[in-house]
Amino acid sequence: MLREGSKDAFRILYDRYGMKIHRFALSYLKSDYDAEELVQDVFLKLWIKRDFLNVSGNIRAYLYKVAVNSIYDFIRKKNLELAFQEFANGQPDDNDSTWDEVVYNDLAAQLNQLMAEMPEQRRKIFKLSKEKGLSNDEIAESLGLSKRTVENQIYRATAFLKDKLKRNSVLSLLFFYLFC
């Protein structure tokens, strides 16, 4: 019935599993507010994906799998935000240097993956501008292009990355802090 959009079926599932997932989330997140947010997120995902649910499957297992993934994402996001704040404030914690390195490498890998999706020339121009610090005139001269073409390609690269990164606020903050 949930697949057909039954609010009663949804309410029954929420009443049956909501508090259990809340306690489960609270054991990891240590914040009642965050656990409540996570429960809402889990059930929102259930409602959104209701058309694709396997009715014969174990709904309890599905809900807990979504909860575990959401907890992981939540903790990862919080750690990324803390690392970014430390980076932006210039106050890295020496005790967390390994974690900071992991976070940095993760962000760099995501950014590199997105840059690999760009056309080769656009990627090359963007790297020359943002990584090497060359001016548009220097890039145009070294690649035998017009300055306008270089400007256009940098604009398109930045627009592409903005669009792709807006789903990940921490990565987009880091991107804009470093490149814009």
Automatic annotation (TrEMBL):
Superkingdom per UniProt: Bacteria
GO molecular function: DNA binding; sigma factor activity
UniProt-listed Pfam families: Sigma70_r2, Sigma70_r4_2
Species of provenance: Sunxiuqinia dokdonensis
UniProt KW keywords: Coiled coil, Sigma factor, Transcription, Transcription regulation
Annotated ranges, domain RNA polymerase sigma factor 70 region 4 type: 110-158
SUPFAM superfamilies: Sigma2 domain of RNA polymerase sigma factors, Sigma3 and sigma4 domains of RNA polymerase sigma factors
Transcription is among the record's keywords: yes
RNA polymerase sigma-70 region domain segment(s): 13-79
NCBIfam families: Sig70_bacteroi1 (TIGR02985), sigma70-ECF (TIGR02937)
Protein name: RNA polymerase sigma-70 factor
Family: Belongs to the sigma-70 factor family. ECF subfamily.
GO biological process, alphabetically ordered: DNA-templated transcription initiation
Coiled-coil spans in chain: 104-131
InterPro entries xrefs: RNA_pol_sigma-70-like, RNA_pol_sigma-70_dom, RNA_pol_sigma70_bacteroid, RNA_pol_sigma70_r2, RNA_pol_sigma70_r4_t2, RNA_pol_sigma_r2, RNA_pol_sigma_r3/r4-like, WH-like_DNA-bd_sf
